[in-house]
Design goal:
Elements (H helix, E strand, L loop, with lengths): L2 E6 L8 E6 L2 E8 L2 E6 L13 E3 L2 E3 L6 E3 L5 E3 L2 E2 L2 E2 L7 E2 L1 E4 L2 E5 L1
Antiparallel strand pairs: 1-13, 2-3, 3-4, 4-11, 5-6, 6-7, 7-8, 9-10, 12-13
The protein binds FE2/S2 (inorganic) cluster.
The site of FE2/S2 (inorganic) cluster (FES) has 11 residues, from loops.
Length: about 110
């Protein structure tokens, strides 16, 4: 594991997220209350693109079947809903983030 540069802080304003591909890893970086967090960008259910989902506070919702993940931990707080079925899904990987000047680095 090493801290790799993913982007600049100016690319992610407060309350937004941005997807990056770093060394083949799909990483989604968030600015939540001025602090930066990073989790996997592909839904653990069926690979939905979380960067196309809805971000509400510290919860990102998958656009495919509505799984919700806590962006500060990667934990799945609510699984997918398909029809009347409520399922479970695994947590997203979460990555440590370090800010150096205006550079965002993620421990991958
Ligand atoms: S792919 Fe994300 S909830 Fe199904």
């Amino acid at each position: 594991m090493e801290y790799l540069e993913v982007g600049k802080t100016s690319e992610i304003t407060e309350g937004t997220m941005k997807a990056y591909i770093i060394k083949g890893n799909n990483i989604l970086v968030f600015n939540y209350n001025g602090k930066y967090y990073a989790i996997g960008g592909k839904c653990t259910h069926m690979g939905g693109d979380l960067s196309k989902g809805k971000l509400d506070g510290k919860i990102v919702t998958c656009p495919r079947h509505g799984s919700k993940f806590d962006i500060t931990t990667g934990e799945s707080v609510s699984g997918p809903k398909i029809g009347f079925l409520k399922l479970k899904t695994k947590k997203e990987p979460s990555y440590e983030v370090k800010i150096e000047g205006d550079t965002i680095k993620v421990n991958i």
